Amino acid sequence: MQRAKRVKKGINFIIWSIPVVAIVVSLWLIYKYYSSLGPLIEIRFENAGGIEPKVSQVKFRDVKVGVVSDVKILKKGVAVYVRMNSEMKDYLNDTTKFWIVKPTIEAGRVSGLEALISGPYIQMSAEPLGFTKTKFQGLEEPPIKDIKDVLVIKLVANNSYGLTERMPVYYKQIEVGSVRRVSLKDNKVYIYLAIDKKYSIYVNDTSKFWNLRGVDVSFNKDNLKVELPSLSSLIVGGIAFDTLQFSAPLTKSEFRLYASRSDAYQNRLGRDKFRDVVFIVKNNQNGKLRVGNPIVFRNFKVGEITYLKSKFDINTNSIITTAYAKVDESAFRVSLEDAIKRGLVAQIKTTFPILGGIGIYLSFDKPYKVEYFGKYLVIPVKKGFVENRIVAKLSEILDKLKNLPLDKTISDVSSFINNLKNSMGSFFATTTKTLNTANKTLKGINDLSSTIDGMLKKEINQTIDNLNSTLLTLQKLANSYSKDSKTYQRLNILIENLNRTIKVYRKIGKQIDNKPNSLVVGD
Amino acid sequence: MYRRCKHCNAVNLKDSLHCKRCGGELKYTNNLSLAFGIAGLFFYIPANIYPILISKKLAKVYSSTIIDGIFALWSEGDYPIAIIVFLASVLIPLIKFLIIFYLLYSIKFKKCEFYKFKVSLYSFISVSGHWSLLDVFVVVVLTGIVSFKMMSVLPGSGALYFLIMVILTILSVKYLDLRELGEKCAKSKES
Question: ipTM beyond 0.95?
Answer without folding.
Answer: no
